[in-house]
Amino acid sequence: MDRKGKNMVDVKMSNRRAILNLLHDQGAMSRKNVASALSLTPAAITTIVNNLIENGVIHEVGRPEQAVISGPGRKEIMINIANRNCCGLGISINLGEAILSATYLDGQLIFENRVRVSDQTPAHETIKNLCRKMRRLIEDYSISSSKIIGLGVVARGIVNNDKGISLNSYGVWRDRNIPLKKLFNEQFNIPVVIDNNVRALANAHLFMSRMRNMGSMLFIRSEMGIGAALLIDHKFHYGSNYQCSEIGHIPVVRNGKQCSCGKYGCLETVASGRAIVTLVKEIHSKEMTPNLFMRTGGRTSEITINNIVQAANEGDRNICGILAKAAEYFATGICTAVTIIDPQKIVLYGTIFEKALYMDMLREKIACYSQEIAERKQLIEKSKFNLNLDAECACILTVREFYDNGGSLQQY
């Protein structure tokens, strides 16, 4: 293909991408308003939109009486993404569990199925098993293969998204450098997109919030571990070794506990949900944690973040101390991040951020370090989709890729 031909293809693809992203962010629009928003001619919009309609990616919506009047005797026909015409598949792999899911193009969940996984099982066997279950779910929900745009796979730890390799899963598997994309491509003859689980959650947060124009953001997830994703100049940053924004693995305690990453005293070992549960279990007794002991019947297996915070609210002082110390370490990480990267927004995602007691502690500790940061009220917020993107994020990864490639499967 000559340079001119290639450039024309690039321009066409760029315009298709722009239209799909605009309709996703803004909802139904007239062709005239799409042309105006993108500074394109009505003729160019008509050609591209007609092609996308033929492909089943967008459709005309609204009855004539609901449409916007554009001139005497004429009414504009609205267009929008045909969300139900296609779907994305997703597999999210974490410690001890994988989530198999499918969503429509707007991120609405079709199905979600949780499967236990073991670090004792080789990665290739785990993947074969997950793919068998996924094929069964596709059949059970009568999803036509012609509607599937691709498979998004997200994994815990360090992921080389370009090559589709899990470099270090931090305990999901014992082996490193697992060729995830290759293994999934062997099972499914569809486009496969691979990324880290926290970046996928951050991407899903932006997608569902219609916040594609967000310039910079630090997205932090705290659950069993602590992970983050960094957006700068509208793009996620990966780092030279795909370890950018691994805030959970910043050393904060000298001679501390060994972390899953191999280092000692990482933030994750003292401030994650798993760390808090572990610390509480170490002192769990009728004398040291009376309210929690009563709630759990003395069984350490019943200790969760939910009943830990409930016991703290009821007056278990030792648990309050553990939560306050965890919040202090977490505040250290946040204040350090703000100082270094100065993001527009820090978004928090995880069970612990649903707890008012902990959030009050966190805000108090942040204020102790920096009154200036504490006073920036719009800087730090809990995701409005908190705890509701774990199943969807892998699917949305491939939906976003589909949009960015102009809604054409052949572009993968």
**Unreliable stretches:** 64-69
How many H/I helices? 14
Helix content: 40-55%
- Any guess at the CATH architecture of the largest domain? 2-Layer Sandwich
Q: What structural class should be given to the helix and strand makeup?
A: alpha/beta
By CATH's scheme, which homologous superfamily of the largest domain applies? ATPase, nucleotide binding domain
| Number of DSSP E strands | 17
N- to C-terminal separation? 18 Å
CA radius of gyration is: 24 Å
Can you tell me the CATH class of the largest domain?
Answer: Alpha Beta
Q: How many domains?
A: 3
- The rough form would be described as globular
Q: What is the spatial order of strands in the main beta sheet?
A: 8-7-6-9-12
Largest sheet: 5 strands, mixed
Q: What is the percentage of strand-forming residues? A: 15-25%
At the fold tier of CATH, the topology name of the largest domain is Nucleotidyltransferase, domain 5
Average per-residue pLDDT, rounded, comes to 92
